[in-house]
Amino acid sequence: MSSTAPRHTALDALHRSLGATMTDFAGWDMPLRYGSERDEHLAVRTKAGLFDLSHMGEITVTGPEAAALLNHALVGNIATVGVGRARYTMICQEDGGILDDLIVYRLADDEYMVVANASNAQVVLDALTGRAAGFDAVVRDDRDAYALIAVQGPESPGILKSVTDADLDGLKYYAGLPGTVAGVPALIARTGYTGEDGFELFVAPADAEKVWQALTDAGTPAGLVPCGLSCRDTLRLEAGMPLYGHELTTSLTPFDAGLGRVVKFEKEGDFVGREALTEAAERAASEPPRVLVGLIAEGRRVPRAGFPVVSDGKVIGEVTSGAPSPTLGKPIAMAYVDAAHAAPGTAGVGVDIRGSHEPYEVVALPFYKRQK
Amino acid sequence: MSNPQQLRYSKEHEWLSVAEDGVATVGITEFAANALGDVVYAQLPEVGDTVTAGESCGELESTKSVSDLYSPVDGEVVEANQDVVDDPSLVNSAPFEGGWLFKVRVADQPEDLMSADEYTAFTAG
């Protein structure tokens, strides 16, 4: 991590006026929580929460060969994404290792917005720029062009509806359209990282406070609260969603992470990592690597990233993310474990928590799925 | 945030009541509870345990981290707060009252415990 001063989002002063506890995240000074992270988590599950996600990295790709470039640079079939739709995908190294997981929005026939994790935005920008050689396409760093505000939770459609002219009923999950929110231009996307219905709003940084305030005013009567990164992490963990640096790293391929479905071998043309990923797919089928599973505690001690998963005194895996689950009322974790111990209900599995082996139940992911 | 005047405070953010019949109550301060975030698990010392000032005697686990619990004094534990074991959120909601952690028969008390005003200044720095 660089030792330079932390970056501040356009909503920084507002977070401080709300009394947020701030934390360094990938070089950004971000709200960790405003009050109780458990209350914030439960508000998103039952009502609504408002997040500043302006640390995420936006990269715009334009030009006649924008689709061809992204099909070459990423593992997904980006050319088939319809205008106004979004796709979850990944960018890999030549050896198949995951550089980042991404959401790609197709804004027009020849224009895409790639949203990278804050910690990887520069890596993704550099890779896309390098891979653009020979394509009639332009890769643009738009990290400073947007603030990103998310409103998530079952009440979020009603709240957003009251401050936008956009047709939200026509906006499907993983779709995005331009519109206005609180009278200012916004790209309105029905995406999120919480396991709930919700929206992500890309707006000009100068308009961010206005949008935040309008959503606060409209949402407070419905139970909306400001939410920090702490509850965002427990929300995504319950929803079984991977976090780069935890479940996804350069030493894992999408197949190792159980996300081989994002790799589209059938697409036209070559793409970075095709050869290595073809081998990784075969390896995953013939001799399964460690499998990403869910673990639910029988006790109350909380597993953390890096703790060994054990069975019969032997290490059989490693926790990648762990936290007390507000929804389940118990500690939960995601972990990579040897395939022999990965089946839900496997007996005798525990986590080594500072030297004591605490019993854990192996379950299929996710821990939580919303009722539709 | 106001720190009760009648308590004494340690640099590890524990508070200690003035002993009655040699027994004092120990908890963590509101400042510490806020810094931890929601406490979800409390491992407290057991009745009969000997605790030593400045040494770990249990742990408090929150959403993001686990923290050692220190005793502000030397002595023998005579009671642990079962209410906190059952509902650790008491540490956040009432750190100076219902969220107390354990009671100790004081054998020796360090001289560097702070007054409320001194602790307020300590945490403001």
> Briefly, what CATH class of the domain at 12-54 and 146-238 in chain A?
Alpha Beta
Q: Poorly predicted ranges of chain A (pLDDT <50, ≥5 residues)?
A: none
Ranges of chain B with pLDDT <50 over ≥5 residues? none
Total helical segments of chain B = 4
Rg measurement of chain B, Å: 13 Å
What features would you describe in this structure?
Chain A has 372 residues and is of the alpha+beta class. Among the domains of chain A are: 12-54 and 146-238, Probable tRNA modification gtpase trme, domain 1 (Gyrase A, domain 2, 2-Layer Sandwich); 290-363, Elongation Factor Tu (Ef-tu), domain 3, CATH 2.40.30. Helices cover 20% and strands 33% of the residues of chain A. In chain A, the strands form 4 sheets. A 6-stranded mixed β-sheet of chain A has the order 10-11-12-9-3-13, sandwiched between helices. The longest helix of chain A is centred in the C-terminal third of the chain and has 13 residues, at 274-286. The radius of gyration of chain A is 21 Å and the shape is globular. The relative contact order of chain A is 0.15. The model of chain A has no long low-confidence stretch (mean pLDDT 96). With 125 residues, chain B is an alpha+beta fold. The longest helix of chain B has 9 residues, at 116-124. The radius of gyration of chain B is 13 Å and the shape is globular. Chain B starts with 7 loop residues before the first strand and ends with a helix.
Task: Please name the defining characteristics of this protein.
heterodimer, A: 372 residues, alpha+beta, Gyrase A, domain 2, Elongation Factor Tu (Ef-tu), domain 3, 6-stranded mixed β-sheet, 6-stranded antiparallel β-barrel, 19 strands, B: 125 residues, OB fold (Dihydrolipoamide Acetyltransferase, E2P), 6-stranded antiparallel β-sheet, 3-stranded antiparallel β-sheet, 4 helices, 9 strands, 20% helix
